[in-house]
Amino acid sequence: DNIMKHKDVAKEASKKSVKTRIQRGYIKQVDGKTMPQHAKELGFSRSYFGKLVKSYGFEEAIRHDKRVSSLEKAFSEILTSTGLDFSAQVRIDNKVADFVCNDIAFECDGLYWHSDFFVNNNYHVDKMRVYRDNNLRSMFFRSDEIIYKTEIVRSIVRNCLRCNSRRMMARKLKVREISKQDGYAFILQNHLMGKPSSVSSCFGLFNGEELVSVLQMKKHKNNIYEISRFCSKLECSVVGGFSRLLSCFTKKYIPSEVFTFIDLRYGMGDYLEPLGFTKVSCYKSFKWTNGSLVFHRMKFPSSSGYDMGYAKIWDCGQAKYSKKFCV
């Protein structure tokens, strides 16, 4: 008695109705898809996705997929551990910061949605500049770092917010040159970038017999050295550790120049200038990503990574600092 009771007929009628409403402009499409279609692909309910679009705009909403949401949840737990008040989804001019705590804006970047498949190569630089213009320091962490190196990220965040559980003065610690193997082991456990490809010398700071800070150096031609890695033990803040280790290195090896690169996603390099370093350049760089992991840009020279289905994820810039020595 009612033909619409038949599921197939009702489904076809619904499709025709939607098509007609699209043609008449009652339903809007973005990139050839309706909002419910976008919501379904991202795994959101229609109502929740609608709220995201209304609050942040479509471009920001599509970046809040389930992986990003889980990242934000994980990162909020890190901030909660500091005991400090923080805010989520803070609009700053025309940008939205994932979190703001004290004077630091934190970003949790999903590799897939923050790749150049969806954002341009200035996306992160532009955000960083907006935050700086509003007197905020910024820190951009990627999903692979938050997921696979949670404790290291936690320590970095807590150190920047001055919440690390241990604080010691470098002048009260012992310095000695250590083996490359011991240096590698320490860096693997405590540095976000992991161990470098090679080093020529390592120096460590010791609290008794406990290794609490490491500086790794790599020699180039003409007695020029690169600072490959420097970090302190998780949850430790070693005041003056970098300058003391560098001083011991220069006294023994007498370099003609020392240089290093600062990843502006989470570093600033402001501690280098008082030590005689000069900023000589700053360029954006990228890594390749498959959506879950990142790979060095030279793994796929030029743009060959695209042929493998990979995308580029751009950073906030790599700042080079250099200090020359009279020899």
Describe the structure.
The protein has 327 residues and is α+β, with helices and mostly antiparallel strands. 33% of the residues lie in helices and 31% in strands. It has ten helices and 18 strands. The strands form five sheets. The chain has a seven-stranded mixed β-sheet with strand order 8-9-10-11-13-18-14, with helices on both faces. Strands 3-4-5-6 form a four-stranded mixed β-sheet, sandwiched between helices. Helix 2 crosses helix 3. The longest helix is centred in the first third of the chain and has 17 residues, at 7-23. The radius of gyration is 25 Å and the shape is elongated. The relative contact order is 0.10. The mean pLDDT is 87.
